[in-house]
Amino acid sequence: MAPIYGLEIPKWGMTMDEGVVTEWLVGDGAEVTAGQPVVSVESSKLAGEIEAQGAGVMRRQLGQLGETYVVGTLIGVIADADVSDAEIDDFVTGHGAAAGGGSGSGGGAAVGAATDSEGEPLGATETPANTAAPQGDSATSRTPAPAATAAATSPTVPAPAEDTGADRIPEQLRGSDDGEIPATPHALKLAQEHGIALSKITPTGRGGRVSVRDIQEAVSAAGGQVSFGNDRPKVGRLPVTGDDSAVAATPIARRLAAENGINLNGIRPSGRGGRVTREDVLGHLARTTGSAGGTAQPVAQEPARAAAAPSSSESGTGNNTGNKGTQIPLTQMRKVIAGRLQESYQQSPHFRVTTHADIDELLSIRKQINAGRDDARVTVNDLVVGAAAQALLRVPEVNAQYDPAAQVVTQFEHVDLSVAVSTGEGLITPIVRNADQKKITAISAEMTDLATRAKAGTLGPDEFQGGTFTVSNLGMFGVSHFDAIINPPQVAILAVGAGQRQFVPDDDGAPVARTRLPLTLSADHRVVDGATAARFCRELQRILESPSLIFA
Questions:
Q1: CATH architecture of the domain with residue range 4-115+122-149
Q2: What is the CATH number assigned to the segment(s) 348-551?
Q3: In what residue span(s) does the Peripheral subunit-binding (PSBD) domain sit (predicted)?
């Protein structure tokens, strides 16, 4: 028997448990070679491509664009052309059984055709009421595995339907091309169906290709709307039923679910101890509200806000002035950032300690270090990172992580320092490992490399997961000072503002102009006391004002 190769959602790092199919790089039925990238997948903070394990033909594209699947879910099948459809079907079904997916194990639904009680396939988006795949977590909504959205016997993902009443293509984007505009197969098909000129779309795909997302964003920006794949109207899901009183859930999650008619049995938990959280319910609600056949209702509003919201195409300021707005869906990374920071701010009792450091001597040493350097220059932030690493060794209570479920604090021997970097998708915190053991020039070179690859989206999971402390610097933007939100499970974060020239009294009381650097530590009061935070700030100030200690 000729080999059959499956394409699965990969696991990039210990914390990744799902991925979004963002682009098919080859068409259904296309020939592929071993090692050829065939599909793009995006996790919360990484984007990458899955390569073919062997040569053959793309026989199944089960993963639908924009849909989220749990790690290990089968999203595609590659095999020789002489392999029968029946063999492919058996492979898909067998893969589902081997994956052990299902709500009981916390995984996705098993890959395979969903059938009703008489053995007939259910609708394309239906799931049996008693085997509904869990959905929603704090970062993004989960969807059933591919077989729950397309019968395993179907050779391809259903093609886009003809224009519906919801599809509106602005006139300025209409037209045709000579076929020389680089575009993905799905983008080309979408453009042809709707008469969209690809030459009028700004490409962001790999190799300068136009993607489906590019088309949808351009249409939305021009005031229109175009759906594709799972964006199209769907057959209603069968509601999840049964007593959900035994489902572990936070009080607010249970109340929110009750207010919106949501059965907790249909929500995948992400909280500690397997509890359903408020974010889980909101994620489920965001996915189901407004979809055909959805059972959930909008979140209960206060009386003053009970009026219906404007439609997406006419969303405005709410004062009936006709000022229209553009709705921009959150990216996968932004969803994760939103969920994590909201959870941190709500669950971690933040308190702040602020101080200033005189950095004139530090700036003088920096000038000496950079003198005659042809490569990357050492920045003030590099020196702050080095100083923070040394201060953390002296105050290890702040160089720690906290597990609230186990009520255990872990203090670390060395400093794995996370440094906030802004990217086009959102904030990411690459880590300088063992920063306390590295020279400033090494920290500087590593930070330059990490920041460059963070903005390009090419960091590995181990390069931004597992830090023990975070430094966030907005000084380069002229921000005088700010408060940062703790990055859990860390217990503290340092916010660095812009150095400012200020007059301060010398030993004789005479005013002297000095460069003062504002430093604000946000700490988790569950495990860090005010005196401990003050001790860290004092130690950091001392090191910055006596910068030779950084090199000790």
A1: Beta Barrel (2.40)
A2: 3.30.559.10
A3: 182-219, 248-285
